[in-house]
């Protein structure tokens, strides 16, 4: 009963909606894909040579499909009217006020999108069946709310609500979308629900092997997304907790991670100890899970997962505290160079980056900060650190200038380019004693020690 091939649109042209839809359009040249947003500047950027987000390989994908079968538009209503599959990929941040503030997901944008879809379907003449797809990460049972909004105000349109969470990571989004470990499609366990699931699954099957396209019920799909992020973040907090023990015992966290990671039951990935995890999702999604557990009367489960966040906050604070104590308990008036501000390499995204916490802690201690990041804009850094930080922070386009005259360097993002910097030259330009704090364990600290640096690495005895 669905048109074949189905026309597709997406509400939300952000880090998920943009790349995901671009890849669908590239892989399915006969499917028309329209990506919409309320934000006109964002859409204009998607239609320009300077895309609104940096992601390796994205430019090529967009250039191949844009204007052929990929369109970016602010005309949301027209897209909803025209399309069979409507993805919703709007932001779902943590609530900042009201019930569940600081934990629960803020579903305002989500519900506005739902109501808009309902209103457009209600007004449109042809009652084409619609498949509405949750792409955003949402609490379990959100699909129910979407279905109820649709039922209440959209008479006569046959619709199904599916959950199709996204597992891409920033910096590797295009690779992840080309060759996903799995695509997950959850839907109602009715014949109509099944037909909708197959319609969406068939889009992915054009380039994803069938055995990697998993289908489940709605609630399993919604909960699998929160669980995946919770498990990933938990691994980082676990290895970070061990990093502290390594520092005081003389063990080396990289050696420990390698030694446990070769056990095929544990596996080698996501065991890199760091200054702490960042990004828009890990913390938000765990808090969301914690809130859900509490609401369903499971306080022990909530507490268990909450510890992942507690450990991460402690790791970030510990890093900054350690810098201050190593530098004779004062950084007041000292210049400190920060290499890397993004929450991970190969992205310009700074949402929840540990660099914000570390810089703010150092500014509190009255340090002068010089920041270099190859992809984050000056405006973004000032926005993240706040106006009051303006006179304490200098942003440089050159890592050598950022480090010149500094008492210490802190590496906060694992950009590859930092590995090949000329540290002998940098050392010459610094105040002595010169300190290096490697928050990502990417530098050969022994080589730096030979140059003359006082070195400190996460999970390395000093
Ligand atoms: P984002 O903030 O980059 O993009 C969301 C976009 O939605 C914004 O451009 C906003 O203007 C737009 N929007 C809001 N309300 C709208 C409406 N009613 N109609 C049309 N557009 C609207 O967010 P993101 O990083 O793309 O994340 C989106 C969702 O995907 C979140 O739920 C997030 O948890 C989830 N997710 C994110 C990632 C990631 O790596 N960033 C990965 C997997 C899942
Ligand atoms: C993460 C998940 O990996 C994706 O599967 C998921 O779709 C996404 O969240 C989401 O839901 O938004 P992302 O946050 O983009 O993706 O990036 P990650 O590679 O997971 O890194 C997150 C943070 O953990 C970064 O700050 C990174 O530096 C840190 N990290 C990662 C470590 O400290 N150690 C590691 O071993 C791995």
From TrEMBL:
One of its GO terms (cellular component) is nucleus. One of its GO terms (biological process) is glycosaminoglycan biosynthetic process. The keyword Kinase does not apply. Belongs to the UDP-glucose/GDP-mannose dehydrogenase family. Residues 337-445 form the UDP-glucose/GDP-mannose dehydrogenase C-terminal domain. It comes from Prymnesium parvum (Toxic golden alga). The active site is at 281 (nucleophile). InterPro entries: 6-PGluconate_DH-like_C_sf, NAD(P)-bd_dom_sf, UDP-Glc/GDP-Man, UDP-Glc/GDP-Man_DH_C, UDP-Glc/GDP-Man_DH_C_sf, UDP-Glc/GDP-Man_DH_dimer, UDP-Glc/GDP-Man_DH_N, UDPglc_DH_euk. It catalyses: UDP-alpha-D-glucose + 2 NAD(+) + H2O = UDP-alpha-D-glucuronate + 2 NADH + 3 H(+). This is UDP-glucose 6-dehydrogenase. The lineage of its organism: Eukaryota, Haptista, Haptophyta, Prymnesiophyceae, Prymnesiales. Substrate binds at residues 166-170, 225-229, 265, 272-278, 343-344, 440. Its EC number is 1.1.1.22. Pathway: Nucleotide-sugar biosynthesis; UDP-alpha-D-glucuronate biosynthesis; UDP-alpha-D-glucuronate from UDP-alpha-D-glucose: step 1/1. NAD(+) binds at residues 12-17, 37, 42, 90-94, 136-137, 170, 281-284, 351. Pfam families: UDPG_MGDP_dh (PF00984), UDPG_MGDP_dh_C (PF03720), UDPG_MGDP_dh_N (PF03721). Keywords: NAD, Oxidoreductase. GO terms for molecular function: NAD binding; UDP-glucose 6-dehydrogenase activity.
